[in-house]
Amino acid sequence: MVYFTKFGDFQFDVLREIGNIGAGHAATALSKLMQKEIDMKVPQVSIIPFDEVANCVGGAETVVVTVFLRVEGDCPGNMFFILDVDSAKYLLLQITGIDKDVYEWGELEVSALHEIGNILTGSYLSSLADLTKLNLQPSVPALAVDMAGAILSYGLIELGQAGDFALTIDTAFFEGNEQVKGNFFLIPDPESLPILFHSLGVPFDGDY
Amino acid sequence: MEIIKIGMADLGVAKPPSRLRTTGLGSCVGVVLYDSTHKIAGMAHVMLPESSLAKSGELSIGKYADTAIPHLIQLMERAGASTRHIVAKLAGGAQMFAFLGNNDTMRIGPRNVEACKLALKDAHIKIVAEDTGGNCGRTIELDATNGMLQIRTVNQGVKEV
Lengths: 208, 161
Description:
- The complex is a heterodimer.
- By secondary structure, chain A is of the alpha+beta class.
- Chain A has helices spanning 9-34, 50-53, 85-96, 107-132, 148-152, 157-160, 192-199; strands at residues 38-40, 44-49, 63-73, 77-84, 136-138, 142-147, 165-175, 181-188.
- Chain B has a five-stranded mixed β-sheet with strand order 1-3-8-9-10, with no helix packed on it.
- Chains A and B meet through strand 3, strand 6, helix 5 and helix 6 of A and strand 3 of B.
């Protein structure tokens, strides 16, 4: 992976700021939906081997609830909104009043979570589009309740064709008393990084 | 008993009483080979169908079906297995997000399975069991003493093939 070696502190800072702005807007949207205060942690920007990506959410076998969407347009990539099973249950209860374990979810519950994921990832992306003036469009969201490794590996297929490492922008958020905890993951396609940096006037001479 | 962990795009060989294990197979395919005569087991965690998809010069052998499978066979032969005794089992190749199935990247699970079958056919290796497709993640563990493959999913529990 030649091009990741061209990352300096400045490039990392810029990506962290992207996570900060995007997840900040998403957290605000979540806070409005739940009518509760949502805090977030400092975004983690990491270049990690594929195998370790799932470690950020508790390991490859941890069961998570994930809304996935593909980012299309000028700067393609993959976006994941990830919750642990208890958080997803609580979130659904707070917003819709439905009290059901994730394993018992039917069409209605799944659809509600789709919509929540859609709103949150939509705010993430639109703030990013405003910042960069790039055209970014989310695909229709998809939901899965399964092992984190199996789900996240889906977002690595594009990257897999270019190398063995993934660049992830991971922002954790939590509701005041930690009843809802989750992560926003943005995994840009490799060819998106120069476009992203260029749009913000950040020097980057990566070639790959 | 030692459990050897096979990571994504990785492969490995084991002898009894060791076990080979790979976790969180989604669209990836776990290819399991076993020679019951010489008791040699092999496992690969294949991520993509063909090495021609590689966009960068360096090639990771374990990542692609068409490179991982021949290499795994070689490693097993080096460990004392013989190709004519080797049989295969496949698990994985799911489509985690079912209705995004309209573009090629999203159909990667079924494509991985097809590519693995093709590579096994080229090597004249018979597939004796298969748990592929669907939309669920799988964790698999192979016992090198008897070639039993344990497949665990979130919703359907554990089964052995």
